[in-house]
Structure prediction request, 328 residues.
Amino acid sequence: MTSVLPPLVGGLPDGVSTVSLPTPFRVGRVNCYLLGDPPITLIDPGILDPGSLSELTTLLSARGLGFGDVEQIVVTHAHPDHFGAAAAIAARSGGRIVCGLPEVAGLVRPTDSQAACDLLIGLGVPGSMARSLVSFRDAAVERVVGWADPSRVTAVRDGDTICAGGRELVCVISAGHTDGHLSLWDPAARAVFSGDHLLGRIIPVPSLEAGKAHTRRHSLVEYLQGLSRFVALDPTVVLPGHGSPFAEMAVLSTRLRSHARERAEDIASILRDGPATPYDVARRLQWQPEGARLVMGLANAQGHLDLLEDAGRVIADTAGDVTIYRLV
Prediction:
């Protein structure tokens, strides 16, 4: 990919502290942000693990705080590396958990394993492999997640405002990485807490959506369409869920759009050899794909096939149990 990377930023807005917490996942460490003024707020508290909680304790102690002082936990999205410890901290402090409305279900109970298996099979994954992938995922999540009491979860909608750390933050709900990813816009500091929606050095993986190609949500298409909203905000700093803070949102938008075009062309080239399922495409795009790497590959393949379909360049055959794509 030849596009320019957005420049990194060294400092944080006043009143914001951060720690990069360990996870067992391929993406590596996850950023947790502490807004230390009332209401004291943690954004994305990481996984439920003694090592991670110890590092969170150090972050809080530096401000003369403990878990019992946390009044609010904001979860940007329902991926375990971001919300695993939220329920345990809320139970200890009596604080509330805040997330986007579409993400509530993912915080209070495990996802439907059979539905996840059916989704993979519909993408062309062999049945035994699909069941193995889902079983592995379920076991990995169970080790690092505490499920939240629904009474402690407050759902927000796009455009709502919340008070956090002595500031008013605007909720920006956007599809792409998940259905209801929550970013927080601080207009006074011109800062965005972006979770995994905007990352300076990593291309976010689009969410895998259930249903037939013609009727289900095209998450990558929506993601790219929504980037202009963040460009218009023109933040001075973006505080991401992974990696370092960065600036120049327009540069990031150009990079993401360039990557999407290049990957779509890669997939179009694969389809010139004949019709293929998303699983076929993912296997061609990656070297020895397996486990979580394969699932990410499937998500990327499906997302870019959606881009090609929306552009009228491919047709999806959904007559059978498995979706097959061919070039127009």
